[in-house]
């Protein structure tokens, strides 16, 4: 409780209230312009001599006893998020970008009658103000600035939302700037994402990886099975695709001798949006020569666990709803076909006929995917029977060959490839391969994909001659992985994807 505490407003301002407040605030802006007629920068100063930040002052003097004075003068700036004006003493809570607050106390004795009157007339909630004064602890123990001089740094023309009421999810994602002002969790998620990205880069650097950037505009889409966005280049007079994955370019880098390479950047997939999918998302992909999907699984586990420690201080993270989730230890590696067979109560193998899989799907009420092939239906059945029972982080190993055109065939199990998907919190977080490096087999796989595309499968890959030409110059045995950064934040924070993306796409 601060000296300026007061009951929260009961309701958000109506549209009429906002219109009226905007008019009043614009008039105050005009007054500021008139008062600053001889100063540069219009209504607001270009810069201000801030000596300390609010977080620094709280770190330094947060433990002051009630009523104590430091003898230190500080000049700070912040947004007014609470204000109470009385006769000879005004209180305001100033908030910094990280949510830290300090109280400003504007008294008649310290600023004079004219300055106090100007504060009461001109300062509104949402304004950025600059104050100078002594650092003290108020009678109630609130760290404060006893103001001797002040200035409006920037005026809020529109009022803030109710600082004491929860914004709806729709309001949060549509007006993230307001969300960041009023909600601690929003700011903490931005910080967590920054820590995750820094941790990923540190882990890669410790293992000798090099970070690169690859094209987002591509002459044809590839590297994943997904529907692309199509755009038009006037300069090249050609259709281009927003990339769905950086894979085929990163593999070119491996061919060129960058044996350990990674990229963190944006991918675009013209597909549905839900609690785990966004049309635009941040993606990590990495490739390491002379390892396989087992080595890449070890790397992925280390990347995620290091990121959890960077955010939460431990591999046991606490989600937004208070649930604790353990990301520590070595994660189980589960065979797709074996786990599906056990859950379905009958043996299902790469040789199981498509008609038999269809019968199982129909009996279970599993919808048959479009352009159905063996592998697609196996994966649908696995999600139906097995996925919901996974609680701990789990690598699901050895996928059907016909759904994995860029993956090496399993070294000992016919009909599957050396691919895993990592499931955390009930969703797919990452995928990893023993990469297919034989250009002859890769061309055959591309041809099969092209046949699917010709039958109308918009997610099927096309034949990429430039990528094949790179492979024909020799690519070493390689393991590769891809992981959604947004989903990694979901795994660590327990939030939905629209909360982990700072500015998600909304209609």
UniProtKB/TrEMBL annotation:
Q: What are the GO MF terms of this UniProt record?
A: ATP binding; lysine-tRNA ligase activity; magnesium ion binding; tRNA binding
Provide the residue positions that the database annotates as binding Mg(2+) 2: 428
Q: Which top-rank group of organisms is this from?
A: Bacteria
Q: How is the cofactor bound?
A: Binds 3 Mg(2+) ions per subunit.
Keywords on record: Aminoacyl-tRNA synthetase, ATP-binding, Cytoplasm, Ligase, Magnesium, Metal-binding, Nucleotide-binding, Protein biosynthesis
Q: What is its EC number?
A: 6.1.1.6
Catalysis: reaction(s) = tRNA(Lys) + L-lysine + ATP = L-lysyl-tRNA(Lys) + AMP + diphosphate
- By its UniProt entry, which InterPro entries does this protein fall under? Aa-tRNA-synt_II, aa-tRNA-synth_II, aa-tRNA-synth_II/BPL/LPL, Lys-tRNA-ligase_II, Lys-tRNA-ligase_II_N, Lys-tRNA-synth_II_C, NA-bd_OB-fold, NA-bd_OB_tRNA
Which cofactors are required for activity? Mg(2+)
Q: Does Transmembrane appear among the keywords?
A: no
Report the HAMAP family cross-referenced here.
Answer: Lys_tRNA_synth_class2
**What quaternary arrangement does the UniProt entry report?**
Homodimer.
The protein here is known as Lysine--tRNA ligase
Record the organism: Microbacterium thalassium
| Gene that encodes it | lysS
């Amino acid at each position: 409780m601060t000296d300026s505490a007061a009951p929260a407003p009961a309701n958000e301002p109506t549209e009429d209230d906002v219109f009226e407040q905007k008019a009043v605030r614009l008039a105050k802006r005009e007054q500021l312009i008139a008062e600053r007629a001889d100063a540069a920068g219009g209504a607001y100063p270009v810069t201000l001599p801030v000596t300390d930040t609010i977080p620094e002052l709280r770190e330094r003097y947060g433990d002051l006893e009630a009523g104590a004075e430091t003898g230190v003068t500080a000049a700070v700036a912040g947004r007014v998020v609470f204000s109470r004006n009385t006769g000879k003493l005004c209180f305001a809570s100033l908030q910094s970008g990280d949510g830290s607050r300090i109280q400003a106390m504007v008294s008649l004795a310290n600023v004079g009658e004219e300055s106090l009157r100007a504060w009461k007339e001109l300062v509104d909630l949402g304004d950025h103000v600059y104050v100078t004064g002594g650092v003290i602890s108020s009678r109630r123990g609130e760290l404060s600035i006893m103001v001797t001089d002040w200035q409006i740094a920037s005026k809020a023309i529109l009022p803030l939302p109710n600082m004491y009421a929860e914004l709806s999810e729709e309001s949060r994602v549509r007006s993230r700037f307001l969300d960041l002002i009023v909600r601690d969790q929003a700011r903490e998620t931005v910080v967590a994402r920054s820590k995750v990205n820094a941790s990923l880069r540190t882990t890669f650097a410790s293992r000798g990886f090099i970070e690169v950037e690859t094209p987002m505009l591509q002459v044809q889409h590839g590297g994943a099975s997904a529907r692309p966005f199509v755009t038009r280049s006037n300069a090249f007079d050609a259709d281009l695709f927003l990339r769905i994955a950086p894979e085929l370019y990163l593999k070119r880098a491996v061919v060129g001798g960058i044996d350990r390479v990674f990229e963190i950047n944006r991918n675009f997939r013209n597909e549905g949006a839900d609690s785990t999918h966004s049309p635009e998302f941040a993606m990590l992909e990495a490739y390491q020569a002379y390892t396989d999907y087992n080595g890449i699984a070890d790397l992925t586990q280390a990347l995620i666990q290091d990121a959890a420690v960077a955010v939460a201080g431990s591999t046991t993270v606490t989600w937004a709803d208070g649930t604790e989730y353990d990301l520590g230890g070595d994660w189980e590696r589960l065979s797709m076909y074996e786990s599906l067979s056990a859950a379905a109560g009958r043996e299902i193998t790469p040789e199981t006929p498509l008609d038999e899989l269809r019968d199982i799907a129909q009996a279970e009420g599993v919808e048959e995917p479009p352009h159905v092939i063996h592998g697609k239906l196996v994966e649908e059945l696995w999600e139906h029977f097995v996925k919901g029972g996974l609680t701990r982080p789990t690598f699901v190993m050895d996928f059907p060959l016909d759904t994995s055109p860029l993956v090496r065939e399993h070294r000992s199990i016919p009909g599957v490839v050396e691919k895993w998907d990592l499931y955390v919190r009930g969703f797919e977080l990452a995928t990893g391969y023993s990469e297919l490096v034989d250009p002859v087999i890769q061309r055959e796989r591309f041809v099969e994909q092209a046949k699917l595309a010709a039958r109308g499968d918009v997610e099927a890959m096309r034949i990429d001659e430039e990528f094949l030409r790179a492979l024909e110059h020799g690519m070493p045995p390689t393991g590769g992985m891809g992981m959604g950064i947004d989903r990694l934040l979901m795994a660590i924070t327990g939030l939905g994807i629209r909360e982990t993306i700072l500015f998600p796409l909304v209609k």
